[in-house]
């Protein structure tokens, strides 16, 4: 519980490799997560070779953490392995569709989170790279991912060289809904986000970016509509190219 | 680690409610998971009222576990709350697209897995209901989910009234790939699935279903192409209806 509640993403790592046995143990713990019909619709690709990490880093927009982490684990929704098993056992796989893609993505993400907790339990630090879905097409090329697979997230792993503060969260009443979704009125939204907006770091963030409100930093700079729309079209196209047609 | 490695889904529960403080603590631990840009793109709806559980159960195909668990937690990809905050802070949200939907789904799934581990740490048992994406449209109605939200998974929670064996997993070499994806040849696939195929329970499963191979039980009965295609179209339509257009 302590481990879950004290999680903070690590973006600076010691120059120290992760023992292969530890890496295997982490992925094993990942694989103990629940999985759709026990089909295990995922694979994990570990990138440790420096040249390969340098190939991946630009696809993660050259975030320092992607460049410097000793290990990148890419979590892949995978219906390739299972479908091959079907085909060679006189069974016709029916998984080249969106719903199957999404089921495999769920599987891969539960594995990822279990693996992160296992890693932290070994004293390692982790950072999710949300950039995987932006450049899935290029990551597929670098990692040689076959049809019926799709990379859904990447986790940078290594021994921490920093100890960041916990980041802010909105109050629980903004997250947990009793019986039905409680939609929020303006005053409630104000209240939920007040703590975040009043953090010195966030005020600084607004100032540095020359914006009037913190929300504008998100909409105009960090997660822009035009980028989201561009990467939506690209991602949908890549899902289809990987054989999940719709 | 023990907790992760000893996980087995629980489908039979004691007739005993879960203390609201424990439920809050579980969801809080969920919310400590990594989240895209710290936007917390998720909500959790707790269904405990008997009538509401009876409304949800048919949408989970009346699985006994859905009918009998004292709590169902539905994990919702949620760009509604964040977008409202943007709008009332002079910022134009740009999240009505597929990529934003998928980012929120990732967020919600990491919360779900953390919450499951926290629940197990309290001695509770959990079972994922993969059926959520099949009937998302109807679940949206029952839980009154607004536009820019989408239910991605549901977890049944309660005090265990059974202690099932761990389920089988394929060997780690079928999951963990070194540097690039190692695609599998026929002999390798045979080897990966041999243990599963030779389990007495699986042989029984093939027999009961009148099939020749275990793979056929999956393709012809449990996860059929025609069902997958039907639910793909339905799910895509629902994602769009919820305001994530593409």
From TrEMBL, chains A, B:
Residues in Nitroreductase domain copies: 6-159
Identification of the protein by name: Nitroreductase
Molecular-function GO terms, alphabetical: oxidoreductase activity
PANTHER family: OXYGEN-INSENSITIVE NADPH NITROREDUCTASE
Key word NADP present: yes
Keywords from the named record: Flavoprotein, FMN, NADP, Oxidoreductase
Pfam families in the cross-refs: Nitroreductase
The family this protein is said to belong to: Belongs to the flavin oxidoreductase frp family.
InterPro entries attached to this UniProt entry: Flavin_OxRdtase_Frp (IPR016446), Nitroreductase (IPR029479), Nitroreductase-like (IPR000415)
Source species, domain of life: Bacteria
